[in-house]
Amino acid sequence: MTSSRKRGPVRAPRSSQQRVVAIQPVPAGRLLAVYGLLCAGLVGLAGRLAWLQVVDATNLQTRAHAIQTQTTKPIGKRRTIVDRNGRLVALDEERFTLWAHPRYFNFPGDDPQKIRTADEVAGKLATVLAQPKPALLQTMAGRPSGVKLRTDLDPETAERVRQLGISGLDLEAYPHRIYPQGSLFANVVGFLNLERVPQAGLEQSRDSDLKRQETALQMRRGADGTPLPAGLTAGSLYGDDLRLQLTLDSRLQQVALQALAKQVKKWNAKRGAALVMDVRNGEMLALASTPTYDPNKFWTFNPGLFREWSVQDLYEPGSTFKPINLAVALQEKAIKADGRVADTGQLSIGGWPIFNHDKRANGLIDFPTVLQVSSNVGMVKAMAQVKRDRFWHWLRTMGIDEIPDTDLPGAVAGELKSRKDFTSQAIEPAVAAFGQGFSLTPLKLLQLHAMLANGGRLVSPHITRGLRSGDALASTPGGSGLQLLDPGVTRTVMAWMESVVDNSSGLGMKIPGYRIGGKTGTAQKAERGVYIPGALITSFVGHLPIDDPRYVVLVVVDEPKGGNTFGSTVAAPVARQIIDALLVLERIPPSHPKELQKAVAKPSA
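RESULT FIELD:
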């Protein structure tokens, strides 16, 4: 049955009615504003990206490269110097500076957060560094970082510091120049000061050659600091092992220096020099001078010792120049090899008196005797046969007033009168005949005597053979040089010099089995054109062996004091010791083996 009750509208429950939210339309202006802001943001972002990638890309790449790349600057290492046989003369040794950072002190095995006290660290370092603990504490007091505790640490001490394993201690490596031979080569090698700036000798003159070819090393690193191969060019890690090789022999240098120092002390002389040259190529085997200094402690010595006077100071050579003048006279055919001169003991030239050192007349003598008795009068008469203009020309041609062609640092030119003064005043060529009135260095005199020994060639004296790699040593170069004199002329003069040694028993230069030539010199010493009363320079120059000349030895002793101060008594004994050593070291065979055998057999008879 159908109900007839009329039903009203159905209503939702109250709770459902409350959840109905009326949606109102958003204003169009607000939508446009939001849309505009979003578009502006996108345009700005695109513009910024374009700026970074196009305009500012180079700058950003540079900054990124700087962050990712580690640059290591070179520490300025220098090449090693060795003698002719490879013995060390100068080298760089690694040294260390010890830095402390107290705020990071930590012992091995400690909690990383635990900080040790400076007192604890100083206690461990005191033994290793051989320094008092209170001194170390005072240095670190109140300073949290960057404390320099010690410099000039040797590698062994630095390793002991590392083995302590203490965090907060840093070792900074740096090169330190040392000279193992001490004062032996100081006069020619020089030294570096505490800032590693060369101050003298080869260290200064060959500075560019002694600097290693180091470049700043740039290495790319990853985010965790791992080195990456990218960025390293070929040869970046290469370090050359070149060494500067000298022509000097440390063994002969030692003999020369010891003999020279002993004689300078004996005669209370001002200074002395000994030089040995290979006449075939100009190589110096020894260049010793005294007094000298220790380049490892240069600051304790007088700076006046830092220059090599045998290369830089001038003197009048005196009688040691007589053989050279006689060679000039022979070359000019002004005298004959078998000629003679009348030695009257004294004579007057332009009102100036000239006499022999002993004021004795030797009569009619040949030229070997002129050298044997060192006759000044005989030399004046012999050189008077040479035209003055030609005499002066030869002195110029031999380079008396020119700087020698040499690698020896500081070499200077000699002094020679002008052509006008030399040719217009008779006294000038007269005194030049026996080695006065002009001046030169001992090095120049050595070069001219080498010219006599090698057949008339003017070779360049030098003490370096160049840069060599590894253990390789340079071979001895062959002969060269400007030919000035005829070989026949020089052979004649060398024979005359041999007669000086053979006929001078008091000279003490005769060695059984060997042919040796020589000449002494005892010259007045001049200063500013005036001779100093009583001041002499004694010298001796020797050649060996005469039959096949290879070496010339020159010894010069400045201002010896006392009686009997002559080249034969002061300089010759030093030369004799050098020649004895030279014969052994260079294994020079005797010219007369039988004579040597007899001399050796005599003591046992």
